């Protein structure tokens, strides 16, 4: 079976497509648990769960379009800034949790990570980024 990225896989397209919502749900639950632990648990566990949730949510789209295609699309000109900010903020969440041990630093970069992921996701919807830029005033 050949997927959209031109690679062949042993699993069917239906199987891959069913992994997308499952991965998205798992990513959401992990990020939600991490967010709860920001206030009641160790900062390190929060950082791991939240960033892992984001990564799993990113992987979810790879099940639909193929992982090779997704990697190529992530670095197209309209997504490059969001992609770089997203990955940088993930790293900085870990820096805040494991090196600096500062809650507010982690919270700031989680917010930046969330905004970057949202913008990254919107770039796949035709016209969505233009609408957001218009609302924000860019």
Give a short synopsis of this structure:
The chain is mostly helical and 138 residues long. Helix content is 79%, strand content 0%.
Describe the secondary structure blueprint for this structure.
Layout lengths: L12 H28 L2 H23 L1 H8 L5 H21 L2 H20 L5 H9 L2
Helix pairs in contact: 1-2, 2-3, 2-4, 2-5, 4-5
Pfam families: Got1 (PF04178)
InterPro entries: Vesicle_transpt_Got1/SFT2, Vesicle_transpt_SFT2
Membrane topology: Multi-pass membrane protein
Describe this structure in words.
There is one protein chain. The chain is mainly alpha-helical and 138 residues long. The protein has one domain (13-136). Helices cover 79% and strands 0% of the residues. The chain contains six helices and no strands. It has helices at residues 13-40, 43-65, 67-74, 80-100, 103-122, 128-136. Helix 2 packs parallel to helix 5. The longest helix has 28 residues, at 13-40. It is globular and about 40 Å long. The N and C termini lie far apart (44 Å). The model has no long low-confidence stretch (mean pLDDT 88).
Count helical runs: 6
Oligomer: single chain
**Strand-residue proportion:** under 5%
- What is the strand tally? 0
Main sheet overview = none
- Tell me the number of structural domains: 1
| SSE ordering | HHHHHH
Organism: Collybiopsis confluens
Family: Belongs to the SFT2 family.
GO biological process, one term: vesicle-mediated transport
GO cellular component, one term: Golgi membrane
Features of the shown structure:
globular; 138 residues; mainly alpha
């Amino acid at each position: 079976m050949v997927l959209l990225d031109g690679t062949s896989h042993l699993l069917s397209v239906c199987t891959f497509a069913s992994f997308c919502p499952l991965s998205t749900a798992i990513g959401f639950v992990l990020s939600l648990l991490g967010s709860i632990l920001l206030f009641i648990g160790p900062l390190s566990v929060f950082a791991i769960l939240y960033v892992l949730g984001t990564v799993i949510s990113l992987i979810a789209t790879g099940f639909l379009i193929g992982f090779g295609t997704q990697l190529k699309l992530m670095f197209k000109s309209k997504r490059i800034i969001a992609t770089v900010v997203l990955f940088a903020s993930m790293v900085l969440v870990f820096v805040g949790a494991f090196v600096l041990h500062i809650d507010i630093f982690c919270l700031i970069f989680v917010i930046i990570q969330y905004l970057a992921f949202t913008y990254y996701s919107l770039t796949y919807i035709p016209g969505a980024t233009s609408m957001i830029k218009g609302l924000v005033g860019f």
